[in-house]
């Protein structure tokens, strides 16, 4: 009888923790700052089409513009997956980064000032081999830039990964 009570208590506790985790996940996106950045990009989605794991890395540069009369500081650049890295291509052509997925190693602060009416490029690099054979199929990855006002600009890449 004692074993039955302990088993029931563990089961109820486990179910409670799972419910708490689901509630936390449902609430978390609503708590994030969903304000839009003043930065603009003429293209925010790029589809690589079909790419092969055997051909290795693919990359795309997105133009980011500051159409305002004020300087904008990009505070953070993060990716949605460890298989994706992002770099800021500075005005002098040098790369700043890599920026990656939170929780997957150190991600430096971007702290890149884009002056009024200037632009930068964000180079997004996707590694189709990062997930091994399980990574075959349709992918959808994101890069998010957050500015000093808390506004965010999201860039997206898609591909169909084949072996």
From TrEMBL:
InterPro entries: Ig-like_fold (IPR013783). This is DUF1573 domain-containing protein. It comes from Candidatus Magasanikbacteria bacterium GW2011_GWA2_50_22.
């Amino acid at each position: 009888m004692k074993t039955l009570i302990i088993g029931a208590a563990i089961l109820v506790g486990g179910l409670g923790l799972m419910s708490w985790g689901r509630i936390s996940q449902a609430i978390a996106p609503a708590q994030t700052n969903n304000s839009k950045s003043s930065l603009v990009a003429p293209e925010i989605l790029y589809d690589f089409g079909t790419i092969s794991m055997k051909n290795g890395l693919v990359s795309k540069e997105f133009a980011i513009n500051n159409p305002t009369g004020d300087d904008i500081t990009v505070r953070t650049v993060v990716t949605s997956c460890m298989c994706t890295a992002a770099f800021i291509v500075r005005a002098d052509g040098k790369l700043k980064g890599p920026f990656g997925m939170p929780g997957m190693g150190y991600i430096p602060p971007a702290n890149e000032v884009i002056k009024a009416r200037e632009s930068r490029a964000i180079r997004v690099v996707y590694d189709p081999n990062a997930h091994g054979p399980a990574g075959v199929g349709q992918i959808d990855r994101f890069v998010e830039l957050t500015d000093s006002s808390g506004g965010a600009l999201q860039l997206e890449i898609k591909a169909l990964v084949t072996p």
